[in-house]
Amino acid sequence: MWIKNIRLIDAYTDRIGNVEIQDGKIKTITDQKPLSITDRKIDGRGKILFPGFIDPHVHFRDPGFTHKEDFFTGTRSAIAGGVTTIFDMPNTKPATFTREILEEKRLIARAKAQCHWGLYFGAGIGNIQEIENMKNVPGVKLYLNTTTGNLKMDDKNQWREIFRVGKRVSLHAEGDTFAHAVEIWLEEGAPCPLHLCHASLKSEVDLVRELKKDRALVSKISMEACPHHLLMTHKELEAYGAYCCMKPVLATQEDVEALWKGVEDETIDFFATDHAPHTKTEKENSNQTGIPVYGIPGVETLFPLIFTQWIERGWDLKKFAAMMSQKAVKIFSIKDKKGAIKEGFDADLVIIDPEYHGKIEAKNLHSKCGWSSYEGWDIVGRVEKTIVGGAVVFENENFFERLLAREINFS
Ligand SMILES: [Zn+2]
């Protein structure tokens, strides 16, 4: 299959060309000379081809909470949003604290996933040996603040123990807790790569910016930011209640501006959604009882929300591509050839209509939860086709089940 006359954009290039896909790989890339292609082809004029987006932080609720989402609906929502790889978090039920539970979760993902996937391991009390022996995961998730599921670790000696294992640790740590975790990590000699999930505060961006100035630490510290923390403040929480309630909670305009500064100067490495759906009933109940139910859906609205900002700011789309895929490949040491449009790379791609202007409407989204915090928001750009493993799996609102989704390989 050929994609002809399309604007190819990845972290390294922005040009018009033609791409040939064969056996799940990008076989040939040619420039814009007229091609006599008799093969099946897609006319890409006026469109953009990006490497498939990577969302390294989702909660697809499977197993245990499949009334909210499951691996099938979650990954369908992903591909409809141009996301071709996701990493699922360990606070499912049972929580991913042992290798045996991880294997069971792998079976679920293998059977249901419509896009590529990786599964996080969880840090729990007394599972240090399991962490030492876990294989092929993006990292171990360490919860230092309260969120959905009771996975919070308070014992600082356990933090030390987990750091010392040396495998990548992804932190849910907010503000002072993050600063404290960094202190302990430094005391231990920064023995593992440390990643801050869903940055929401100016203090977190400032701290990571300082750490990255140290040559010895720059390749060991990373952070992600979510659209909701980049686009909303506590004012939305006050106005919309449970539908804008997540952890970390929405912060101030000053924090929002600090996050965008962090995106601009690359202190923030990539975007992630923390896609964490709950049913409408659960959110309504939360509004009535005042008991918080943390998390909002987001995997499908990642692209249009961030792309719209990028276009408004007139920023370089190569950097957009980098932050939507290539940087996650690098930071999580993904062994598969993903995150770039290069010959020999996996054909996980997304075709975008950059001229589209419209609105986000939950009725057009595919998460099981059926609502969006961004209802009615104006957006620029639309996912026209999503290609996973060389085959079109989503095209103009239609899904094609190809069973080409694979587990990501980490080195
Ligand atoms: Zn999360």
- Beta-strand content: 15-25%
Number of strands: 18
The pLDDT mean sits at 96
Distance between the termini: 31 Å
Bound molecules: zinc ion
* Tally of helical runs: 12
- Silhouette: globular
| Estimated radius of gyration | 20 Å
* SS-derived structural category: alpha/beta
- Which blocks of ≥5 consecutive residues have pLDDT under 50? none
Q: Any overview of this molecule?
A:
With 411 residues, the chain is of the alpha/beta class. The chain is built from 12 helices and 18 strands. Strands 1, 2, 3, 4, 5, 15, 16, 17 and 18 form a 9-stranded mixed sheet that branches. Strands 9-10-11-12-13-14 form a 6-stranded parallel sheet. A 3-stranded parallel sheet has the order 6-7-8. The longest helix has 15 residues, at 317-331. It is globular, with a radius of gyration of 20 Å. The model has no long low-confidence stretch (mean pLDDT 96). The structure holds zinc ion. Residues 57, 59, 89, 274, 276 line the site of zinc ion.
Give a brief description.
With 411 residues, the protein is an alpha/beta fold. 30% of the residues lie in helices and 24% in strands.
Throw out a few tags for this protein.
411 residues; nine-stranded mixed β-sheet; single chain; alpha/beta; binds zinc ion
Helix and strand layout, with pairings?
Elements: E1 2-9, E2 14-22, E3 25-30, E4 41-43, E5 48-51, E6 53-58, H1 71-80, E7 83-88, H2 99-112, E8 116-119, E9 121-122, H3 128-133, E10 140-143, H4 156-165, E11 169-172, H5 176-187, E12 194-199, H6 202-212, E13 221-225, H7 227-231, H8 234-240, H9 253-264, E14 270-271, H10 280-289, H11 302-313, H12 317-331, E15 349-359, E16 378-388, E17 391-395, E18 398-399
Parallel strand pairs: 1-4, 1-5, 6-7, 7-8, 9-10, 10-11, 11-12, 12-13, 13-14
Antiparallel strand pairs: 1-2, 2-3, 5-15, 15-16, 16-17, 17-18
Zinc ion (ZN) binds near residues 57, 274 and 276.
